[in-house]
Amino acid sequence: MERIYIRNLLPLYGRKIIVTGIISIFSFSLNAQINAHFFDSKFYTKPIHFGILMGYNSSDFRIHRSNAFLFNDTITTLNSYKSPGFSLGIISNYRISRHFDFRLLPSLTFSERGIRFDTFEDTSVLKSLEAINLDIPLLIKFKSDPYKDMRVYLIGGLRYGFDMASNVSSRNTEDMIKINRHDISLDYGIGLEIYFPMFIMAPEIRISQGLFNINVPNHKLIYSRMIDALFSRSILFTLHFEG
Questions:
Q1: pTM, whole model, 2 decimals?
Q2: Which of 53, 64, 162, 180 has the greatest number of beta carbons closer than 10 A?
Q3: Alpha-carbon distance values, 192 to 46, 52, 135, 201, 206 (Å)
């Protein structure tokens, strides 16, 4: 069966998501907006509300090299490289107070990242690692006072990720690098709420830094033994639609 690569899916779906989001921003901005205080009063009487999100992400690794790398006679350098991906998810928002919300954002995230190994023979080996993550971010959102029909917010918290495409259970091959299924990340970012008559749209930028080593070492494998630890990291741009 032909393998499906995330990088091949992005031109088909990721660009459609980005274009759809941009068109939405400009088309909705032509409609009449209402004051943000209306949504404040609405959510005060209805503290839980829902929505959807769609977005673009760019992911790679923070690499810690092993002692074996210092004394090997094959690999000269190894560096992580980024690849694009996309996300789709559901928003569950609980109002804590006028300025604070608790948010649960279960999402399905498609991403691809990799490691480039340069050798003494002036050749390079690219090890691509795909991920299909079920992400469950638990976030606290701090909102400013509204200005006209918009307001700025800060967001931060923890995100649990389960990689459904992890190769941790695959049979060992000499050139394999294995990645753990489970990961926990620290997420933080900034966004802008824009109020429309029937919903809120919020473009958001969020940075994610992995807290735990997701490398599954095997010193019998040539590339795996060059790596002591791998920590995930990514930048996410998402559009949120809530009402």
A1: 0.78
A2: 53
A3: 22, 16, 22, 8, 12
